[in-house]
Design goal:
The protein has a domain of 95 residues: 3 helical TM bundles of succinate and fumarate reductases, CATH 1.20.1300. 65% of the residues lie in helices and 0% in strands. The chain has six helices and no strands. The radius of gyration is 24 Å and the shape is globular. The N and C termini lie far apart (63 Å). The N terminus is likely disordered. This is Succinate dehydrogenase [ubiquinone] cytochrome b small subunit. Belongs to the CybS family. It holds the Pfam family CybS. It comes from Cettia cetti.
């Protein structure tokens, strides 16, 4: 509602909420619907035509990516006890793949949040793919040429 905003209109430095923080109390932990609606009115309109911009993919792709991230996280929760109870090559290579993918997606979010500009984003993404490929190759090499992830963790715990 307009009574929550100081005079000055959208985009004005004075268009911040006027309601005292002491009066809101626990409501500060969440964004009130009235303030969200006021912010939405002030936000610039998004184009509904033209090519998708960086980071603005389809909602279906984003939903599938989110589901994949959760599936890998749940898989890791299951692989940890499996690595302890049934150590072996299958669990070692599954851990190598799941840990690499989990780390790749996590660092991808760091890039999305903190790297700005077209060229730095492209450079960071290329670096991320190189790092992920080297991580997976290194873990597979460790599994094949050495004791494997499960046995290595068991050896560390026995120290």
């Amino acid at each position: 509602p307009p009574w929550l905003l100081a005079p000055g209109g959208c985009g004005s430095p004075r268009s911040r909420p006027v309601v005292s923080a002491a009066l809101l109390g626990p409501a500060l932990l969440r964004r009130p619907a009235a303030l969200g609606a006021a912010a939405a009115r002030c936000a610039p309109a998004r184009d509904s035509y033209g090519p998708a911009r960086q980071g603005h993919g389809s909602s279906k792709a984003a939903s599938l990516h989110w589901t994949g991230e959760r599936a890998v996280s749940v898989l890791l929760l299951g692989l940890l006890p499996a690595a302890y109870l049934y150590p072996g090559p299958a669990v070692d290579y599954s851990l190598a793949a799941a840990l690499t993918l989990h780390g790749h997606w996590g660092l991808g979010q760091v890039i999305t949040d903190y790297v700005h500009g077209d060229v730095p984003i492209k450079v960071a993404n290329v670096g991320l793919y190189i790092l992920s490929a080297l991580t997976f190759a290194g873990l597979c090499h460790f599994n094949y040429q050495d004791v494997g992830i499960c046995k290595a963790v068991a050896m560390l715990w026995s120290l």
